Amino acid sequence: MDNQNRFRLLIVDDKPEIHQMMRRYFENTSHDLVFADRGQQALDLLSQTRVSLMLLDLKMPGMDGLAVLEAARQIQPGLRVIMLTAHGGISDAVAAMKLGALDFFEKSVDPELLRSKVNQVHEMWLLEQENRQLRGRLDKRFCFPDLVGTSPPMLKLKDMIARIAPTDTSVLIQGESGTGKELVARAIHHHSQRTRGPFCPVDCAAINETVVESELFGHAKGAFTGADQNTQGLFRSADTGTLFLDEVGELSLSMQAKLLRTLQERVVRPVGTTRAIPVDIRILAATNKNLLVAVSRGEFRQDLYYRLSTITLEAPPLRQIGDDILLLAGYLIERFSRDEGLAPRSFNAPAQTALKHHDWPGNVRELENVVRGALVLSTGEVIGPEDLSIPTVSLSNTPGNLDGHPTTMTDHEVQIIRNILETTAGNRREAAKVLGISEATLYRRIKQYNLA
Ligand SMILES: Nc1ncnc2c1ncn2[C@@H]1O[C@H](COP(=O)(O)OP(=O)(O)OP(=O)(O)O)[C@@H](O)[C@H]1O
Ligand SMILES: [Mg+2]
């Protein structure tokens, strides 16, 4: 790669030993390292050369880091900056973030963390480069006939898929269960340059912990009792294609460590061998957990999270896609009746109202079941609300019922809020984010339903 196309890292610090340290941290990368020991020198450099990421010391003689940050962004508006400081001060961190810094680290930070962060920025940068090249070639938007929906969240999702599919970036797909995460992963694979290669899904929640390592990486004959032949493992089966790590949040910490190593080195080591076999795969991952919460609780490695989440996509829940519910229901009834060789059927207006008012905790998967059921229950070609096995909307405002199963929308809401507050350990800001509502709304609900 010529110098023009390399990821250029500008390190600004008045201390030569920090320059040395950074040189060591990044010596095994292909990054082009440039150094400055004063703010003004950094600004001069920025006005002459394009920099991909600046690591900027906060306290320096002369111009301090915040002033450099502000001036630097005048020169290169899109410049990415990570601040470094000897001792973290919250107010400085806040000021830096306001000025557009990406992150703020103490110099004593674990080098791995800093490297993970830089690596994440590097991947974003690569993606931009690729996108720039692709934009010229991409005259028409991809369409995804399998992915039904025209609501703003669905259009946003499709647009993102179209943009990231042709690249080789890792993508983390987040969404509640049944929202179509696997469908999204398949669409990405299908529209990628790897479409002729295999799409290999791995259900991280379902594979048995004791054999997960050999399932993923393969094993040599005789590696353990019962290993009577060599196996290649899922990673190698996905070679030249896409590996889809479903429910990635369920991996144990030890498996996370092994996965991270594999992703970093791009080689697999089958159990019972010392051989390192190179693999060429793209990683897509999905989760219905909030992985950031898992990271904050020490249940998910932060460095692995950064690796997997270069790009994050949200598969929206049904209750957020408005009339798409009807579009999906229509699409499904048509598909299922065709499969069964039946005449086309449609939903009458009351049935449509019922569909729109249900809050679909099981999302599209639940809708599929309801539509299948309706096909069986309905006698004519028109489906009424009586054919839909969903609870009718209750206007009751009293949460909870005798057997503890939610039946009304309010019950569902209470249960969802309770669950989220539990998984965020009572952190309301985090909970509001996960729920997609404002903190004030969450606060009102908590009061209204006595959840405090
Ligand atoms: N936008 C959509 N258009 C058409 N079908 C959809 C859409 N979203 C989901 N589906 C269908 O809904 C079902 C569930 O989707 P999928 O298995 O991809 O969800 P998921 O998010 O992986 O769920 P889980 O968390 O339960 O694994 C599938 O049969 C899928 O084809
Ligand atoms: Mg799934």
Q: What ligands does this structure carry?
A: adenosine-5'-triphosphate, magnesium ion
> What is the radius of gyration?
26 Å
**Which fold name fills CATH's third level, the topology of the largest domain?**
Rossmann fold
- Low-confidence runs of at least 5 consecutive residues: 136-142, 393-404
What is the total tally of β strands?
A: 14
User: Could you give a short account of the major beta sheet?
Assistant: 5 strands, parallel
Structural class: alpha/beta
CATH architecture designation of the largest domain: 3-Layer(aba) Sandwich
Strand order of the largest sheet: 2-1-3-4-5
CATH homologous superfamily identity of the largest domain: P-loop containing nucleotide triphosphate hydrolases
- Amino-to-carboxy terminus distance: 58 Å
What is the domain total for the residues? 4
Give the percentage of residues in beta strands: 5-15%
Tally of helical runs: 18
Average pLDDT: 86
Sum up the overall morphology in one term: globular
Helix content: 40-55%
Q: CATH class of the largest domain, anyone?
A: Alpha Beta
Topology:
Blueprint: E1 8-12, H1 16-25, E2 32-36, H2 39-48, E3 53-57, H3 65-75, E4 80-85, H4 90-98, E5 103-106, H5 111-137, H6 152-164, E6 171-174, H7 181-190, E7 199-203, H8 209-217, H9 233-237, E8 242-246, H10 253-265, E9 267-268, E10 277-278, E11 282-287, H11 291-296, H12 302-308, E12 311-314, H13 324-339, E13 346-347, H14 349-357, H15 363-377, E14 382-383, H16 409-423, H17 428-435, H18 439-448
Parallel strand pairs: 1-2, 1-3, 3-4, 4-5, 6-11, 6-12, 7-8, 8-11, 13-14
Antiparallel strand pairs: 9-10
Helix pairs in contact: 2-3, 5-12, 13-15, 16-17, 17-18
The site of adenosine-5'-triphosphate has 18 residues, from helix 7 and helix 15.
